[in-house]
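Fold in tokens:
===
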Amino acid sequence: MSKNYLITGGAGFIGSNYVHRLLGRGEKVTIYDNLSRTGGSKNLTWLEESFGKDGCRLIVGDVADAALLTEAARDADVIVHLAGQVAVTTSVINPREDFEANALGTFNALEAARASGRDPVFVYASTNKVYGGMEDVALAEEPTRWRYADLEHGCPETQPLDFHSPYGCSKGTGDQYVRDYARIYGMRTVVMRQSCIYGPRQFGIEDQGWVAWFVIASVMGRPITIYGDGKQVRDVLHVHDLLNAYDAAIEKIDLCSGQVFNIGGGPDNVMSVWAEFGPILEKLLGRKIAVSRGDWRPGDQKVFYADVRKAGRELGWKPKIGVEQGVERLFEWVKENSDLF
């Protein structure tokens, strides 16, 4: 039996991919989006071309509009809350806008879910930025990357929280509200602390969506700047693997309600942002890529990769798309859709 899904931020990168999946299997979907992000209208066009004008319901609205969001959530069986401000740099420039989009927006979404009286499943897209700089964790340097000296499996969910930057504060506020609404109100909520997600329909920019940005810039011949030594390490996760995690959490919500999960590539899917990623791109392009160099940016971690074993144990989930395979898929998508950029 089909469910009613409300996807906030449903015109965005992750949202449009999930909406496409849900419609493809016959679910009923409402997209709630303010269409402020680059690529949102293009993603809606793609969904319309795939499923027709009446494929899903679209509500153009902001998550700061509590009344409209409450109306949108009235019939939802599942709410996947993806809407928000996504860049650390933007949060530093305009912290109030960041707070209203992320902290207040998530509170409004939770209250909309509670007011519906339908006990919807509530999935929240959090971030690994809630762990902050992890300055107390020892690092080791290798020829092409930094790594954790002692955290063999990566950063666990038990790592102390440290909301660094306005973005970290606003997303972390939402993270903790979502957890607490399971405790206090018995709501069926789950928090996904996501690492670097990449894949098709991602219109990356320098300050956000770095994997897509480097691919787009290399294909389109745009200038690339590498900040720091280029050996900063991140775990990366293909969007289709992320959506598998959402599906697993929704299916097993009675077991995982109120829980927090690291959802990322884990230690098997890490790469340094240029010392290792650059050669992959150059191989795909068939030529060298000229880059500029810049100083380290404030708050730029040398290392982050997530310990994803809890999701494996409790959700039966693990990444299936490896780094080189996923990057090649994204590279081919950008080439085939160069008119979008």
Remarks:
- The chain has twelve helices and 15 strands.
- The two ends are 39 Å apart (CA to CA).
- Residues 95-116 form the longest helix (22 residues).
- The longest strand covers residues 121-127.
